[in-house]
């Protein structure tokens, strides 16, 4: 059994004049100690997927499908169980998470909080654990007495990582954890996350709009387009789906803000999820579309070397 098994997950937001299908039937698995990257343009449903995994979506979102964490269904578990899972088994580092720090509380107290709340440590043991965690993320122990405004953006993101590690989770979900940081700091923080999860045998679900961020860091990649996974495969190999190929051909420099939008060389915009094209939703932008592509939607199918892709040109024939 995998640590995380997502089966046919959908997330739909209710809005004033209708519905936004942000995630549409996503299935994926993640083993203990494995790093899976999820890549896709802005608006492809990555954050909705991440939030759904720990039931952190706003009230106007409807979720269906199954999310098994260690065999336990996150979508149906009690609130009490869910609270325990959120810190002790899986934790999440958000995009611009630095704003999640309390400005008037010393960072040491903020890192210690989940340990104390979940009764994993008393005050003295928590203090020692905070010092150890700060050291793990490359900050001196005396920083525990600092307030968030006394730290740089990169240091604050390191604090957020220390918080995510505090209760020794088995899964860390990192949603664009370095997007707000400058390029040098981004590379340092990403390397840090990778080293920590490898050393502690933690599973990592790393989300980014930037393929270059994920390629080195992850064992496997899943490519999202308009709420669906259109390709999965080992991160080293060549892509099979025309959308993934366009993404990788564009291969933006690390941290390039322009890559949040359409990759270079790929015309048009991602579709509005409230008005999706028929058939393969990528067909209006696909450079190799066939006539049937506007009517037939293809599910993920084998594409060689542990790879799957949702495209009529892949596999079978
Ligand atoms: N709270 C919300 N209400 C309505 N629509 C939303 C909400 N959050 C996200 N969306 C829409 O869902 C789609 C997917 O968004 P998101 O999951 O944030 O994608 P990504 O993280 O890949 O940029 C987008 O079209 C976005 O506008
Ligand atoms: S199914 Fe057709 S439109 Fe969709 S990616 Fe493949 S070739 Fe392009
Ligand atoms: Mg996002």
From TrEMBL:
GO biological process: one example: peptide transport
Membrane topology designation: Peripheral membrane protein
Protein's UniProt keywords contain Membrane: yes
Family in the record: Belongs to the ABC transporter superfamily.
Record's keyword terms, sorted: ATP-binding, Cell membrane, Membrane, Nucleotide-binding, Transport
One GO cellular component term noted in the UniProt record for this chain: plasma membrane
Name of this protein: Oligopeptide/dipeptide ABC transporter, ATPase subunit
Major subcellular location class: membrane
Domain of life: Bacteria
Molecular function GO terms recorded: ATP binding; ATP hydrolysis activity
SUPFAM superfamilies attached to this UniProt entry: P-loop containing nucleoside triphosphate hydrolases (SSF52540)
Pfam families: ABC_tran, oligo_HPY
Domain ABC transporter residue range list: 4-251
Organism of this sequence: Kribbella flavida (strain DSM 17836 / JCM 10339 / NBRC 14399)
């Amino acid at each position: 059994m995998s640590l995380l098994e997502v089966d046919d997950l959908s997330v739909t937001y209710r809005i004033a004049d209708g519905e936004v299908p942000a995630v549409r039937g996503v299935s994926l698995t993640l083993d203990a100690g494995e790093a899976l990257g999820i890549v896709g343009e802005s608006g492809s449903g990555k954050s909705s997927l991440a939030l759904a995994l720990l039931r952190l979506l706003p009230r106007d979102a409807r979720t269906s499908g199954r999310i098994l964490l260690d065999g336990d269904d996150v979508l149906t578990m009690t609130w009490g169980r869910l609270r325990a899972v959120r810190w002790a088994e899986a934790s999440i580092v958000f995009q611009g998470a630095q704003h999640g720090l309390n400005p008037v509380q010393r960072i040491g107290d903020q890192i210690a909080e989940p340990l104390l709340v979940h009764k994993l440590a008393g005050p003295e043991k928590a203090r020692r654990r905070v010092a150890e965690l700060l050291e793990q993320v490359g900050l001196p122990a005396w920083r525990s007495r600092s307030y968030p405004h006394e730290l740089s953006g990169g240091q604050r993101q390191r604090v957020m990582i220390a918080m995510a590690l505090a209760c020794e989770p088995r899964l860390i979900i990192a949603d664009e954890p370095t997007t707000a940081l400058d390029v040098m700091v981004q590379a340092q923080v990403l390397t840090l996350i990778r080293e920590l999860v490898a050393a502690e045998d933690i599973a990592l679900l790393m989300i980014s709009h930037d393929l270059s961020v994920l390629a080195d860091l992850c064992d496997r990649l899943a490519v999202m387009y308009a709420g669906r996974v259109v390709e999965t495969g080992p991160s080293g190999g060549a892509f099979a789906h025309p959308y993934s190929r366009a993404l990788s051909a564009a291969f933006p420099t690390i941290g390039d803000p322009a890559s949040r939008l359409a990759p270079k060389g790929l015309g048009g915009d991602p579709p509005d999820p409230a008005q999706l094209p028929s058939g393969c939703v990528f067909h209006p932008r696909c450079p190799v579309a066939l006539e049937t592509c506007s009517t037939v939607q293809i599910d993920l199918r084998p594409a060689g070397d542990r790879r799957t892709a949702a495209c009529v040109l892949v596999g079978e024939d």
